[in-house]
TrEMBL record:
Residues 3-343 form the FAD dependent oxidoreductase domain. The keyword Oxidoreductase applies. Keywords: Oxidoreductase, Thiamine biosynthesis. InterPro entries: FAD-dep_OxRdtase, FAD/NAD-bd_sf, Gly_oxidase_ThiO. Pfam families: DAO. Pathway: Cofactor biosynthesis; thiamine diphosphate biosynthesis. This is Glycine oxidase. GO terms for molecular function: flavin adenine dinucleotide binding; oxidoreductase activity. GO terms for biological process: thiamine biosynthetic process; thiamine diphosphate biosynthetic process. NCBIfam families: thiamin_ThiO (TIGR02352). One of its GO terms (cellular component) is cytoplasm.
Length: 366
């Protein structure tokens, strides 16, 4: 029997496992597919909410801590696994912002460098962008190549003697004795642990429904596309009208994303492709000269206000939840997992846990 059993092998589940294993715990992680291959793989990898000043303070608290954690985490994983998560801190240009004063006031309160820049400065930084009226510029913002982050986390966990990975192993329900959770059932076997942690992403609500718990987490599809361009065509993340382009070091340029309420359907379609191409070419007109190299979709774990559910599950013993990060799973992962591990190991939490607790009021929003 493990000390901890984690359900879900995305970045939330894997970072939870890593921190528990670092603390000397025996950890089992069970994943319905391959670790890191769902929403964690499908996103863009910006290490910030898209418009951070429009989010609740509870999200800002987590994102601010996580942003500072990514550089060292990426270096650690590169040294331990040889897989480079490609953390890049090149900044972000915000175009067409309709609430700049709110943004600048938020930045002053948070101590974040954010400033208005002229059209000439935008052009100097990104030659491929069309003429603008200027922009907001956040020089400290970073991005990570999320598929490689997922691979690095998986490789590190697979090499740790106190971690056991169970992949291609879908959980069908929980092992209960009265109000105590003793583990989970899968098609292959039963897994037991002193404590179970549900990090199931978009599937978390569906799984907890087997305990007659209504967790208001639902799948929200996001389609994305990518172009293979010459390295350096775009150097920085650029955000315009809710859509973004994210450059990788090898010239791959990601564009996202749609927001679609269609259940667990991950299919792509021509309407999504056309919409994303239109956004991409309005941000970087030179993309009209390049074909779309990839088109895919993932399922975000949508929640009522985007604030994740982190903490013990009411009405049950020996089970906790970390789910409902919506568009910011990778953004918030280092802080939200650190917070939960603090709670699990009875350490003083680095962030006030109250805004994330699974209270009756928050659960009732579903």
């Amino acid at each position: 029997m493990s000390d901890f059993l984690i359900v879900g092998g995305g970045v939330i589940g894997m970072m939870t496992a890593l921190q528990l294993a670092d603390a000397g715990q025996q950890v089992s992680l069970v994943e319905r597919g391959i670790c890191g291959q769902e929403a964690s793989w499908a996103g863009g990898g910006i290490v910030s909410p898209l418009y951070p000043w429009r989010y609740a303070p509870a999200i800002s608290q987590l994102s601010r801590w996580s942003e500072g954690a990514y550089p060292s985490l990426a270096l650690r994983l590169l040294e331990e696994t040889g897989v480079d998560p490609e953390y890049r801190q090149k900044g972000l240009l915000y175009l067409n912002v309709d609430d700049p004063e709110t943004a600048l006031d938020w930045a002053r309160q948070m101590g974040k460098p954010l400033e208005r820049v002229s059209a000439d400065m935008v052009r100097a930084k990104e030659h491929a962008l069309p003429p603008t009226d200027g922009a907001l510029w956040m020089p400290t913002l970073g991005s990570v190549r999320n598929p490689r982050l997922g691979k690095a986390l998986r490789d590190r966990l697979a090499a740790m003697p106190n971690v056991t990975l169970h992949e291609q192993c879908e959980v069908s329900g929980f092992v209960c004795q009265g109000e105590q959770i003793q583990g989970v059932r899968t098609a292959q076997h039963t897994l037991t642990a002193a404590h179970t942690v549900v990090c199931g992403g978009a599937w978390a609500g569906k799984l907890l429904a087997t305990l007659n718990v209504t967790l208001p987490v639902r799948p929200v599809k996001g389609q994305m596309i990518a172009y293979q361009t010459p390295p350096g065509l775009v150097q920085r993340v650029v955000l315009k009208d809710g859509r973004y382009v994210i450059p990788r070091a090898d010239g791959l340029l990601l564009v996202g994303s749609t927001l679609e309420e269609c259940g667990f359907d991950k299919t792509t379609d021509q309407d999504g492709l056309a919409s994303l191409r239109h956004s991409a070419e309005s941000i970087v007109p030179a993309l009209t000269d390049y074909p779309v190299a990839y088109h895919w979709a993932g399922l975000r774990p949508g929640s009522p206000d985007g604030v994740p559910f982190i903490g013990a599950l009411p009405g049950w013993q020996n089970i906790s939840v970390n789910a409902g990060h919506y568009r910011n799973g990778l953004v918030l992962a280092p802080a939200s997992t650190h917070l939960l591990v603090d709670l699990l190991l009875n350490r003083s939490p680095l962030i006030d846990p109250v805004p994330y607790q699974l209270t009756p009021d928050r659960l009732a929003k579903g």
